[in-house]
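Appendix B, example 12.
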Amino acid sequence: MRRRSAALALVAATAATATVTGCSTPGAERDAVTAAALRFARHAESPGRTAACRLLAPATREALARDPGPSCEAGLTDAALPAPGRVRGTDVYGHQARVVLEHDTYFVTRFRDGWKVRAAGCAPRPERPYECRVKGD
């Protein structure tokens, strides 16, 4: 009986710690990353692209404003991102994630205010890093 009580106490303490520290399930993290990527995709295809720029990581937004410039919105237009298509898979690695779409791949990073797209328009290259049309420094 003591072992069972000790085991139940350990389970309860672990659950309480997870709740206090804000840990989430891997499925919930994948869902949050996928939702952020799809919001970006939807706004990146809309006129103006201001909302899409707000969904980019700060360094990525700044890089687009510099090159090609003169603004993030103009940089997104110039990047001519492919229509993403459906989600094929989402991989989360701590604060970093990759969302593989039918016609594109996004790299996403977690910030205090949520998941932001760090790179888009990314294509894999054999035995080399992805080549991305939109990325931060």
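The beta strands are 87-93, 96-101, 105-111, 114-125, 128-135. The chain has five helices and five strands.
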